[in-house]
Amino acid sequence: MDAADPAMAPVWAPGLLGGAEPEDCIEGGAFGDLDVDSAIGSDGTRDPSRCVQRGFTSGASESINADFESKATMRELWSNPGLTFGGFAETLEVLHGAPHVYIGGWNDATGFEGDMTLLARATGDPAFWSHHAYIDYVWAQRQAAVGAMAGTGEGGGSGKRRQV
Questions:
Q1: Cα–Cα distance for residue pair 102/56, rounded to 1 Å
Q2: Does the predicted model carry a pTM greater than 0.70?
């Protein structure tokens, strides 16, 4: 993904994760007109089956009003041996949230909240699975760089390996 201008990333092509228009259904490709059967509205009630919605225009520069972290920044994070397990986990959780908010989108004026924005509906957007695969990759890189048990003494146990 293009971290500096995420809406311009080729991943939003109709043949991949699908194009997007604010407050509209994914168009074209494998996920075009994909219905989400278990959507839950912002008021907590179950919505009828409906399409997956996002809050940005794919292919429109700066349509996502945020920069995502570059791979170089993420590499610095996962390879920092001085960062405790708790510090790494907390930092990654914050960084992980931005794509949810900015891909899903929201509009206070209309009350729109896109699928990736809401916990109860996030898994309905195929982008959720790609995003979380990347978060799993970052965790694996961290384990490879500093060791699976490095720094687990802070909020994660004694740091000693245990037999399973």
A1: 8
A2: yes
